[in-house]
Amino acid sequence: MEKIIYFDYGALIIFVLVLLTTIMRRMTRGKLNQMFIVMISVGIITTLADVGAVYLDNLGPGNVIWKHIFHTTYLYLHSLIIPTYIIYLAIHTDTVHKLRRSRIQQVIFCMPIAIVTVLMIVNCFHPVVYYLNEQDAYTRGDAFFVLYAVAIVYMIYGVYYVYHYRKSVSIRRLIALVSVIPLTAISVVIQFIHKELLVEMFANACAVLFICMMIQRPEERIDSETGLLKMAAYVSDVRAAFLNEKPIYVIMANVMNYGSLQDMLGYDRTVDLKSAIAEEVVALNRKYGLSAELYYLGNGKFRFVTEDRHGDKVEQVAQAMNTFMKEELQLHHMDLNLVSCVCVAKCPDEISDLDSLLAFGHALNERQHSGDVMHASEHYTKEYYDIMKDIDRIIESALANHKFEVYYQPIYSVKEERFHSAEALLRLKDDKYGFIRPDVIIEAAEKSGAIHRIGMIVLEEVCRFIATDDFKALGLDYIEINLSVAQCMHSNLANDVLTMLEKYQVKPEQINLEITETAASYSQRTMLDNLSTLTNAGIHFSLDDFGTGYSNMRRIASLPLYLVKLDKSFTDVKENSRMMIVLQNTINMIKAMNLQIVVEGVETEHGVKQFSDLECEYIQGYYYSKPVPKDDFIRFIKSAMDK
């Protein structure tokens, strides 16, 4: 009976096209891509062996040795197809480490193919799987059924594996992965019944093509400019590692001045810069045998992710990467200096979830470091990132349960030698995390929109306090209230403030609204209208944290400001003569604009004297008092009045 070989030809065409497509799409890096190429290669060699075997069988008697070579190669490699696929599954679900650590799974996985290996070796000396009859025709032997039994075992194992780790992949990918099993099973049944129809390799080729179309998609995983895996792949792979409790090391390398370099170089040269760094990342990974997956997350952020069994090489790679990024990089006849940081994190020991890892990696650019390789164990505070993940819930809970408090910090008048005013400061003590940093609250509240409700809580609490006899007895002129950027640009701000003042019969001059340099840099019509309306109503404005940003003096001069608050960084000039010149000229410039000055963050008697001698009107800081609750503030001011 002559076998129909056209299905094998079709399979061979599909396998070769998928292989060429994979290479042309640059999907050759990374364990998953490399295993996919192994699957294709096994398919190609198996199909070629089948074609050779059938061709020789159809020629009739003779060519005995070559027939044995082709048939043995085909049967053995054919038995490897599903085990190879299971390894691909393990890499895709990021569970290879579980296979390594489970002796039972190793035995289940290795035993069937070990049996096939022994049978094929025995068959060379004593035909049990197949033999060539008197006409040198291929004939199945008594033990041939073992090959089908092994295939069934691996199919069952594959179904179990996909089901057990189904949460590690998306539904679309899950469908593509599962499809391989029924396709293979149906083809085996057809070829078992109709021996002349060689459909098994064609079905396998179709399954590989389906995986190529549904899973091996470079636009989802590969960054086209660097050839490294992109952010989406990083998130997916690291999430799977945490889900499967896989210990990993992550080397984070950030180019901190990436934005400046991008502005200077332009698009094309920035691509060349990223490619040059990516080439070094690949070279280091290869040189030290780190076996890491390599990623480019955008904005100058590169990542190595490797299993903990390669942990002894991680420090070497991190040091080498740090050395490379500190050296001048030559690009298009330019010597570029990268401002960079490199940090090593062991997960989940040091950072236990994806969100925290992403936040920590992003925040590296904001951390001060010596230029040496950093380690997450020295810089990562789990509680802080737990708060960041939970901050929206914390804020909403605080709003619902009236947990926000207003603290007050006194401001001393140098000229009048008394406490002249105070700044109202937001505080929140959460039941789980304790006191939450105000800047964390404000940033999150601005993003969620809760800042407007919080702002009104602070305003109402201050107005309620000003309306009391306790406040009147303190002899303070006003209370300062901070406004965020989002509040300044809210269309109802002026109306809300004036309504609240009217509700508690508070005079406009009894409150002073603070805006930051960031807010002052905006020129939106809504903000300008708010400032104009409130100024016309008699409310004063001050500029907070002056000196922390890039101040546009023309812009500041155009705003209706009453005073300027010097940031506490000005208190650290000490014996720096150049900084003293900057400080003196800054004070002179502010005074020339007829604005009063509050110096923030003064903690020593020397600081009080220094700024008094510079004729700054007001001083605020820990030297006098830290921010305290209202009752403590009242007692403090009264005790100061009695002295």
Structure characteristics:
single chain, 643 residues, alpha/beta, Rhopdopsin 7-helix transmembrane proteins, Alpha-Beta Plaits, TIM Barrel, 3 domains, eight-stranded mixed β-barrel, five-stranded mixed sheet, 26 helices, 15% strand
Please provide a brief summary of the model.
This protein has 643 residues and is α/β, with parallel strands linked by helices.
List the helices and strands and how they pair.
Blueprint: H1 6-24, H2 31-59, H3 64-92, H4 96-101, H5 103-123, E1 130-132, E2 138-140, H6 144-164, H7 171-193, H8 200-214, H9 218-221, H10 231-243, E3 248-255, H11 258-287, E4 293-298, E5 301-307, H12 311-326, E6 329-331, E7 334-336, E8 340-347, H13 354-363, E9 374-375, H14 376-379, H15 382-400, E10 404-413, E11 418-430, E12 434-435, H16 438-448, H17 451-466, H18 469-474, E13 478-482, H19 485-488, H20 493-504, E14 511-516, H21 517-520, H22 525-536, E15 540-546, H23 553-558, E16 563-566, H24 577-592, E17 596-599, H25 605-613, E18 618-619, E19 628-629, H26 630-642
Parallel strand pairs: 8-9, 11-13, 13-14, 14-15, 15-16, 16-17, 17-18
Antiparallel strand pairs: 1-2, 3-5, 3-8, 4-5, 6-7, 10-11, 10-18, 10-19, 11-12
Helix pairs in contact: 1-2, 1-8, 2-3, 2-8, 3-5, 3-6, 5-6, 6-7, 7-8, 11-12, 13-15, 15-16, 17-20, 20-22
Q: Considering the protein shown, what is the CATH homologous superfamily of the largest domain? A: EAL domain
The CATH architecture classification of the largest domain is: Alpha-Beta Barrel
Strand content: 15-25%
Count of discrete domains: 3
How would the global form be characterised? Answer: elongated
Poorly predicted runs of 5 or more residues: none
Major β-sheet annotation: 8 strands, mixed, barrel
- How many strand elements? 19
CATH topology of the largest domain: TIM Barrel
At the first level of CATH, what is the class of the largest domain?
Alpha Beta
Helix fraction, binned, reads 55-70%
Structural class determined from secondary elements: alpha/beta
What is the end-to-end distance? 116 Å
Strand order of the largest sheet: 10-11-13-14-15-16-17-18
The whole-angstrom Rg is: 36 Å
